[in-house]
Amino acid sequence: MELASLLGLSAQAEVLLQQAERAVHPMFEEVDRIAEYNQAKVLKAFADCRIQAGHFQCSSGYGYSDIGRDALEALFAKTMGAQDALVRPQIVSGTHALAIGLQGLLKSGQALLYATGKPYDTLEQVIGIEPASGSLQERGVGYYQVELNEEGGLDIPAILHMLETHPEIHVVGMQRSAGYAWRRALTVEEIGKAAQAIHDAKPNCMVFVDNCYGEFTQIIEPCEVGVDCMAGSLIKNPGGGLAPTGGYLAGTTEAIEQVEAALTAPGIGRACGSYEASYRPFFQGLFLAPSVVRAAVRTALLFSQAFTILGYAVNPAPMKKRTDIIQCIRFGAKEPLCAFCRAIQHAAPVDAMATPEPWAMPGYTHEVIMAAGAFVQGSSIELSADGPICEPYTAYMQGGLTYEHGRLGCLYAIDAVLKSRK
Q: Strand pairing partners for 376?
């Protein structure tokens, strides 16, 4: 038990880790196949967009004619199967990217239909489900939602019924990952089936996808199956752990033209936006993203199997298909949840000495305990975990820049939870 001895952890934890790894190892072959295909897709996009060292240079002030920024956006569009893209360090988070998209696509008197039930917590104030200054509802945009069907998929008949009975609906939103819900992530294929049905029923209706945590987990992306616009964060999957900040929107030319005014200001749109640091981490991060996502998915598989062995409910189950990088573990009590998150923090390369405590995190309904010992603050493509302090005390684990680090994080977490039981 060399690892356990080196790290001061129990031999019992390492035995369980090895047992879990043997069980899920057959799943790694498919994960590796997806990563190899996506790496080829990214490599081809770099060549097709003629990326060169000059594109890494910075700009200042207004950022007019910023060739690095423009090349990065063309590269993202090509990689994501989109007609156009906005990729900016000025987008502060995935929530910000989603807000820009929704604000750009929806006007007063129109309505948003969310087709995956209640949206992720941080969108509630953006939409106005929870009252907030500047929300969509305050701006005169209506809101409806449709729950997922009994199989956890999109309820297409219910979506089409809402479109028929509420002609003001102009955007149908979908959340690809599970977020803080105990459900499976959507596949790109089922998103495409729903997008086709929506466009057939109402051609001018836009389909908008929250793509956070899903990029590169399959060999296709939502824009390749008829989605009008999707958004995500660069400190998640597509940044490859190197992007220091930022977010993106990708989609049809029509959708991006509508969104770009919300990015900056009407009349300015995408023409402005400088970045005085090098663009190299964004290019390099995208290039590494397929490999990093592979490590994160492998890590999620390992955690799922290990905590199944420990007797906890997990979602997805170990042998289920993965279409995002999130692994949910339901602990049923505060103590093991906190022990788990603290173990992930102690297994981090940065701030390992810190002990996470629950706190009132902006945008969330309940206190949240968060482990995020990352090189990029809040980066959830790096090994991280968090959980709201409420029943049923579920941890949401994601990331891992390398599988080796993810494996060690799992060892720390197993050891901590075993000790919390004593």
A: none
